[in-house]
Amino acid sequence: MRKWYRILGYGCLLVCLLLIAACSNEDNTDSDNELRITFRSGGGTNSGLIHWLNNEIIPQFNEKYPDVTVNLAPLEVSEGDYFAKVSLLLQSKDAAPDIVTEDTFMVNSDASAGYLEPLDSRIEKWGEWDNFTENVKDGVIAEDGKIYGVPYNTDSRGLWYNKELLKQAGISIPWEPKSWSDILDAATAIKEKGSGEVVPIWMNSGKATGEATSMQTFEMLLYGTGDPLYDSENKKWIVKSNGLLNTFKFIDKVYEQDLGPDLSQVLNGQGSSIAYQELMPNGNLAIGLDGIWQAGTWHESGPAPWPEAFETLGFAAMPTENGQSPGTTSMSGGWALSIPANSDNKDMAWEFIKMASTKENNLKLQLIDRNLTPREDVAKEKSYLEIEMFEEATEFLQHTNFRPAVDKYPNVSTVIQSLVEDVVTDRITPEEAAEMYKKEVTKIVGKDNVTER
Amino acid sequence: MNMNASNYVTKEGRLKKPQALRSIVFLLPSWLLLLLFFVGPILLTVFFSFTNLALTGTQAQNIDFVGFQNFAAMFDDANFRISVLKTIVFLFLSAIIGQQVLGFLLALLMKGRKQSFRRIIGIIIIAGWVTPEIVVAFCWVAFLNDSGTLNMILNAIGLSAVTWLYTFPMISVCIANIWHGTAFSMMVFQASLDDVPTELEEAARIDGASKIKVLTKIVLPIVKGTIVTNMILVTLQTLGVFTLIYTMTGGGPGTSTQTLPIFMYNQAFVNYQLGYGTAISLVLLVIGIIASLFYIRSMKVQI
Q1: pLDDT for A58 beyond 60
Q2: How does pLDDT run across B182-208, given as a tens digit for each residue?
Q3: Could you tell me if residue A43 is left (phi over 0), alpha (psi between -120 and 50 degrees) or otherwise beta?
């Protein structure tokens, strides 16, 4: 009997050793013939991008380089976790992919951390760089002045609205709100006239929705007050301004007057999907402050196909606080393809990026993914201009703003997210939130880098 | 086993030379592994907690030694104080009241019952314990969320739904943790209660002691050591609970379930402040040590 146990023991040991050996071999397979691309997926995220890679770019690339296997290595995480996970991935020589999609607001941080490869010398020989829109290019240039990625899209934000619900509430279509109070009035009218199930206005308001809370909600409001986050002339963060206080007050008012969604829905990490894949197509959401890319949500290859979307919906420009000049405002960001410093196949990765960034291929992406193009020549294409809502969205770019491309922005952004959540859950008043914003941001960027207005 | 111990040990109780050498050789691998994978990371954690190490940005590349700045910032941080408070509430409700008391009651009720009864009930309770934490969290989210099982039942019997995870977040995570962890305490207490000599109890009963008196004067003093050991184990386990809370509520809404592990995660991986995060983890460690020492001292037992 004991003999059998011993054999069994040795057997287990052998299996373990074999497993260890197998694991250690795995890293070596990533060599010249493999190209790994990392992006965010899950819950319908980036389904257009995946479709485009699989059906357009990878087949083209394999025609030219038949020996190279392109593998998609998506991260199925929430938006907030994606950046942390990418930072960790890029630190490791073994785990780093060869191409990573970077939100342009992270490019500067990740570049300063040494995670990304500067592309200047490669771009010089490329000859396509001049076709990219100037202010979009700024998003991929880090503080050291080097270029760390090739943008593949940009965006603008505005107010999606359901024409029928607004009509029922007695609001004339097309809806053109002139100030924040126009928005509140419309939402109040919808609440009074509509059924109890209709959510008058949806703004991402939680920590779980991460950057979407900072940019689609807080900054869309703040940049309409005339007080931006960062004074780029004097290189100082504005930690106290009327704009900050009024922004917190507006957010508070929406929930105070019960114009927003249930907190249990909006504070959820899946908040955006709930709003634009369920509520809006079902006619249960009247106004949504969000980006043009939601058009891709309802596209036939999107996560929630909705053929009538563009007859039912309108896309209005976000007004400034009191209608002050220039009347409307927007925020723009976008994503870029970058090469990690730890990639072991940089030359191939660059070949891939070049192929993905041509005029034809970028146009194909926007036709599926419904984001704005970073290329000026694509923006002139007829098929591009014919995409629903793109006329509006492109118009918003006139008065758009970009997030401060400085090292500490991601940290400030998380402060914004938690303060917004604290305000909507009534844990603190807007005044306290403004006070805490000053304290927290000063702590992050240092006393010498802040200013008050 | 029946060999003479003096073959290996000197009169003073020390190991004889060849024997000592042999033990060193055999223990060396495990010492090395412990040093490498246990002591090393702990020392590194202590080191990083005094730096401004970040996940991204310039500070990911050049870390600076910042002294006690992280700790100063922590005690100045209202969110930290909230987290400590939430951790204590979570610990008290789910570990001490929930797992410890409930586990003891279950063990007591099962004592002396039929084997088949013990087995069936035992398996049902242990099912909660063998279920991985993430699965437990998903089960409870499915049960408690806005359109979850509980609200379906409430609707079916004509009551209005309650947003459990939003209205009662702390109670919800505590119940989930109790459901998950009670079996462990129950098993520990079962083993210990079985060791209480029946003669003692019988003698006390014959002397006219009530059931409560038998419990408080005889059973509890005998199992006191187990209570403390279990309290320490459960406390340390509960202090480290992350998956369950993160999945169920994400620490929210607001900060209402933001215990220290969640706070630490948010600082390290959401705010990218790894240095600050490690400093918080050290505080968590200190809280664990203090709680353990407190139990040992207050119950006057030797572990």
Answers
A1: yes
A2: 999 999 999 899 888 888 888 888 888
A3: left
Whether A278 is covered by a domain: the verdict is yes
- Measured distance CA(A373)–CA(A379) in Å, rounded: 6
Q: Is the dihedral of CA B267, B272, B275, B278 positive or negative?
A: positive
Do A317 and A398 lie in one domain? The reply is: no
To the question of domain B72-299 being in CATH 3.90.480.10, the answer is no
Lookup: tokens for A228: 């931006």
For residues A251 and A269, state if they share a domain: yes
Average pLDDT, chain A: 89
A17 belongs to a structural domain: no
Same domain, A233 and A290: yes
On whether both A45 and A135 belong to a single domain, the answer is: yes
Q: Do A427 and B255 touch (CB under 8 A)?
A: yes
Domain that holds residue A191: 157-332+404-452
Hey, what are B108's tokens?
């007591």
pLDDT, tens only, A86-112: 999 999 888 899 999 999 888 988 998
Q: Is A19 within the bounds of a domain?
A: no
Same-domain check for residues A172 and A138:
no
Compute the nearest-CA separation of A71 from chain B (Å).
26
Residue A177 belongs to a domain: yes
**Chain A residues near any Cβ of chain B (below 8 Å):** 80-81, 83-84, 87-88, 91, 106, 109-110, 112-115, 206-208, 262-265, 267, 269, 407-408, 410-411, 414-415, 418, 421-422, 425, 427, 436, 443
For residue B253, whether the previous peptide bond is cis, meaning omega lies within 30 degrees of 0, is yes
Determine the distance in angstroms separating the CA of B163 from the nearest CA of chain A, rounded to an integer. Answer: 7
Q: Check A411 against B58: CB less than 8 A apart.
A: no
HSE-up of residue B264 (Cα within 13 Å, Cβ side): 22
- A380-427 pLDDT, tens digit per residue, is 888 888 888 888 888 888 888 888 878 788 889 989 998 999 999 898
Residue A445 maps to which CATH number?
Answer: 3.40.190.10
